[in-house]
Amino acid sequence: MVEEFDLLEEVEVQFCDEECTESVWHGVEYSESLFCREKPKSELTVVIKEEGMMYFLTTDMKEFAGLCRKHGWYIVSHQRFSEAMEIGMCLMEAGKHAGWYSLGRSKETNTMMRDVLNFTFESGKRPDFYPYETIFKGEVLIDGCKCHYLHDYHPTKMEKTNEHQKRVSNLIFRFKEGGHCGELVARILALCLKHAGFNGTKEDTVLIPIPASTRERQRKRFPVVCYYLSKWLGITDGFKAIWIEEDREQLKGKGKGKDKDILRNLQFTRRYIRGKNVVLLDEYVV
């Protein structure tokens, strides 16, 4: 909680959103654009990267978590930094803001907190387990449909030549195993789609995962990511739109299903699909 002293607010953030007429470096009077729904009251320092990463130090983690919910930011991780402060990292929409914001006891304190964040997250000595890019790497046309992809896929048999490839593999493997990673994947994809101009609604769009080879794999991989991704995009969750009636062998590396009816074990629930735009989700394309 804030003690009986005035906090010094400093900000140097470049705003690229629609609230500003041009992209320039603004002074403190424009900090409302970053915290457009609610501003912090307790000590807080954030460093914002153009690619959608935000690093933070806060004395009130509960308040900061509330700010993140109101502004649509996603906390990736946080931990105790000192007796009074928590340090962590979160995701926001890429390309909207870049710079820093400080609300502290003095100019010296604000500068020190920014230095701590830059050293902790930008010194190159902090190994990230996952990749956190929030902009699609590219797109391809498949059967006339536009397909966006986030990372190049490197199969297990290929040697990973750099740390980023290892992080991509970690993300895919943990996603396939199920658990907490589904929420992270959903937030990353939601930010990517919004950056790409996606604007579907519950009335006209449904999210459907491309079925895995078995019911167990389907259950592990997709319920969490479909729930959160459809919620954050404001579209219909179509996880139940396709039912796996019986397990089948994996088709990966088998001629893309040549001489096989790849739909024979699937049952479609038409009420999810009829008259809707369909967003298909898959962990990789083969």
What does this structure look like?
This protein has helices spanning 61-71, 107-122, 163-177, 181-195, 215-221, 223-233, 270-273, and strands spanning 8-15, 44-48, 53-58, 74-80, 86-91, 97-104, 138-142, 145-149, 205-209, 236-237, 242-244, 266-268, 277-281. It has a six-stranded antiparallel beta sheet with strand order 1-6-2-3-5-4, with helices on both faces. With 286 residues, it is of the alpha+beta class. Helix 4 runs parallel beside helix 6. The protein has seven helices and 13 strands. A hairpin with a 4-residue loop joins strand 2 and strand 3 (53-58). Helices cover 28% and strands 24% of the residues. It starts with 7 loop residues before the first strand and ends in a 5-residue tail after the last strand.
**Reading side by side through the largest sheet, how are the strands ordered?**
1-6-2-3-5-4
The chain-level structural class is alpha+beta
Helix content: 25-40%
Distance linking N and C termini: 52 Å
Number of helices: 7
Task: Average the pLDDT over all residues and give the rounded result.
Answer: 82
Sketch the topology as an H/E string, one letter per element.
EEEHEEEHEEHHEHHEEEHE
Give a short account of the largest sheet: 6 strands, antiparallel
Choose one word for the global shape: elongated
What is the percentage of strand-forming residues?
A: 15-25%
Rg for CA atoms: 22 Å
Which ranges are low-confidence, i.e. pLDDT below 50, for 5 or more consecutive residues? 19-30
Total beta strands: 13
